[in-house]
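Attaching the record inline, Q. Sequence:
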Amino acid sequence: MSAPHSVPAPDDVDAVTEAVLTASRLLVAVSARSLAAVDESITLPQFRMLVVLSSRGPLKVTALADFLAVNPSTATRMLDRLVAADLVSRAANPASRRELVVSLTTAGADVVHEVTERRRREITRIVSRMPSATRNGLVRALTAFTEAGDEPGVTDQAETFWP
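Structure, as predicted:
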């Protein structure tokens, strides 16, 4: 285990931002390894799309693009690949036949579940190496962080997903 880093003052936004950026690199690496172990053909942005559909349910393409912060044309290209892989499906919106609604398929839900379980195991291994007092503070800090970012908590969902 590496030497502990100094803890920034709670009001030092720059130091806290640097700590979050460093932690996010670790979490992205964990996510990438977990995804590659399940399906090397799915990119992280495509997996994020699967997670959004898993956590939010069926969505119109424009709403999905908004959740992903991409152009609808980018979302459509991603969807084309995921439809071809049978991970998502597109169907006419019953309320407006001009719009398409995108849903996760069973295979797509299975990918989200398996990748999430792999991530959970690796994060559990990392967290278990931390002192318990630090873990308690981490729970409070990360809960506040995700609430500030408007990300639904895992307890708000049937399963645990990306982040």
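The longest strand covers residues 96-104. The longest helix spans residues 13-38.

More tomorrow.
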